[in-house]
Design brief:
Number of helices: 3
Strand order of the largest sheet: 1-2-8-7-6-9
Structural class: alpha+beta
Number of strands: 9
Order of helices and strands: EHHEHEEEEEEE
Number of domains: 1
CATH topology: Elongation Factor Tu (Ef-tu), domain 3
CATH architecture: Beta Barrel
Strand content: 35-45%
Distance between the termini: 13 Å
CATH class: Mainly Beta
Radius of gyration: 14 Å
Shape: globular
Largest sheet: 6 strands, antiparallel, barrel
Length: about 130
């Protein structure tokens, strides 16, 4: 993270747990992401590990909060969301940086939700996103 100008997060792409797509595709979360992105979200997330953890980010930049949800007697946790711009080979893309509060990832891992599959657009495993606070 940087101290002046836009809040820039840098990190390395990491392997996900294989469940992001299932949650992004759930009607409850999908409708939230659709409203925030202005498109149908790609059914998956891109994970990255930065130097700071999600709690530090939340302290520096107030997140939007998707409330927890109960469906068929199963509780789905709240999700912290930050609007951001991701650097790609083709220029910057509008994305959402998210942190599910029930995540099994370590605190330094954040996820990115976008309108398209991002992996082919990345120049390498280095991630750089400008968070809009």
């Amino acid at each position: 993270m940087t101290g002046s100008g836009p809040l820039v997060l840098r990190g390395k792409r990491v392997q996900g747990l294989g469940v992001g797509g299932r949650y992004v595709s759930m009607p409850y979360y999908s409708s939230w992401f659709r409203r925030l992105l202005g498109c149908d979200p790609y059914p998956g997330t891109l994970n990255f590990r930065g130097k700071a953890d999600w709690r530090e980010l939340a302290g520096l930049c107030e997140p939007l909060v998707i409330p927890e949800h109960v469906e068929d007697d199963k509780r789905y946790g709240a999700v912290y969301v930050w609007r951001a711009r991701l650097r790609t080979r083709a220029g910057k893309r509008d994305v959402l940086v998210i942190r599910p509060l029930l995540s099994a990832h370590e605190p330094q891992v954040l996820e990115i939700v976008a309108c398209e599959k991002l992996a082919p657009l990345l120049p390498d495993d280095e991630i750089e996103v400008e968070v809009q606070c």
